[in-house]
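ok, trying the design again with the full structure, not the truncated one.
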């Protein structure tokens, strides 16, 4: 039986570069607003592990409650790939992006929570997955001169989570029906290898706090 290859992921610096390229903070106001939207779309994949199809299906009611960003995303069966509800906690970077999006796109007294979050001209019609793919690809080309698929952002989230929790939890966060789908994230990536080398050097350095004490 062949072993699945480890998914390609973005390291911490690459994530930062991509998000900055998407944000376009120096752009004119109309483009800057699009940058805020694009930044949030990427954060939903990088920091909550959403599929691109789930991102475009989000409505304002999924990400805001009483005008405040939700602390936990409740992905309803109508938008998930397997038509099963799942919940994902909202971290700091994603929450900050939600607040920025709210400030620029959601009027305080508007009753529009049934509108789509991501649209081009009409909030009753969501963007297509192809449009999101083009946005991510354009930002990647700007950063590194190469294309990436939005699914790499979900892979990155999964790999980050796998380093801090167990496979069963990652399965739930990703919405995988089968644990075998989650096992590909057990492969070490470049960040894991670098951390292993640094940990080894620190343990072998007698002056480092992590160096083990000699046996008494």
């Amino acid at each position: 039986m062949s072993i699945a290859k480890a998914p390609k992921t973005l390291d911490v610096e690459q994530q930062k570069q991509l998000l900055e390229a998407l944000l376009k903070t120096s752009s004119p106001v109309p483009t800057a607003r699009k940058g805020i939207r694009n930044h949030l779309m990427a954060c939903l994949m990088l920091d909550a592990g959403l599929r691109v199809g789930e991102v475009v299906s989000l409505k304002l009611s999924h990400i805001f409650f009483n005008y405040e960003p939700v602390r936990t995303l409740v992905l309803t069966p109508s938008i998930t790939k397997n038509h099963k509800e799942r919940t994902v906690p909202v971290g700091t970077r994603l929450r900050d992006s939600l607040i920025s999006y709210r400030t620029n796109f959601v009027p305080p007294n508007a009753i529009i929570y049934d509108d789509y979050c991501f649209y081009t001209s009409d909030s009753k019609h969501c963007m297509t997955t192809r449009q999101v793919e083009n946005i991510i690809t354009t930002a990647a080309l700007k950063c590194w001169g190469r294309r990436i698929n939005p699914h790499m952002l979900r892979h990155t989230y999964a790999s980050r989570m796998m380093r801090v929790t167990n496979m069963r939890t990652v399965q739930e966060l990703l919405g995988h029906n089968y644990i075998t789908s989650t096992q590909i994230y057990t492969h070490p990536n470049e960040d894991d290898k670098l951390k292993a080398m640094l940990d080894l050097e620190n343990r072998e350095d007698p002056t480092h706090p992590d160096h083990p004490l000699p046996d008494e």
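Keeping the full-length input from now on. The mean pLDDT is 85.
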